[in-house]
Specification:
This protein is mainly α. The N and C termini lie far apart (62 Å). It has 2 domains: 56 residues, no CATH class; 122 residues, Homeodomain-like (Arc Repressor Mutant, subunit A, Orthogonal Bundle). It is built from 9 helices and no strands. α1 runs antiparallel to α2 and α3 packs across α5. This is AraC family transcriptional regulator. Keywords: DNA-binding, Transcription, Transcription regulation. GO terms for molecular function: DNA-binding transcription factor activity; sequence-specific DNA binding. It comes from Paenibacillus alvei.
Length: 217
Amino acid sequence: MVAQLHPNEQLQHMELRIDLRYFDNELPELERLTRSSVFCKQTAGSAQISLLVEQMKQCPYQGALQKLYLEGKALELLAFHLDGLGEEEPAQLTTSKLTADDIQCLYEAKDILAETWKQPPSLLGLARLTGLNDYKLKLGFKALFGTTVFGYVRELRMNEARRVLERGEANVSQTAMMVGYHNVSHFASLFRKTYGYNPSECARLTASTSQHELHKI
């Protein structure tokens, strides 16, 4: 990090270091970050990120609870950054530039992901399975389906997670494992970002909605 400081000016710096092996290959969004030995990306701050950093600085716990709290916030912070990287992926390919064979291969890729979303192939692996190069797979998928490859996988996982939780078939930890996430904190962060509430609230909200509909009848 390089910074220019004026006299009597203070700088606060927070650094998070996370071993990629921690995720046990469950986070395909990280794949492209591991293809080269060096990756550097400067991003603008946001109110959500600033709030997370402040919450980490003001952690109200000590000992084991402090470790658990900070780990959860760190994973949530990482999720925000990775989501931002995905949104910045340039979608320069339009459907008009896709051949009939390209479109068929992209639908095949979507079908493969729909069957393997718990443990999807890597981007390069999916490209090999469909006969596309990874560039055309990434941009063609976004152009044709309106979402990224990894965004589609996450959508499938979150939809199944909500279905399981709404029906009370499993608790949050069990549901996370069922839909392919070994880290419950990371799963909860993605679920909250997708639906706007915690996975632990899912059953209660569903019951409340059902009761409201019953009263209307």
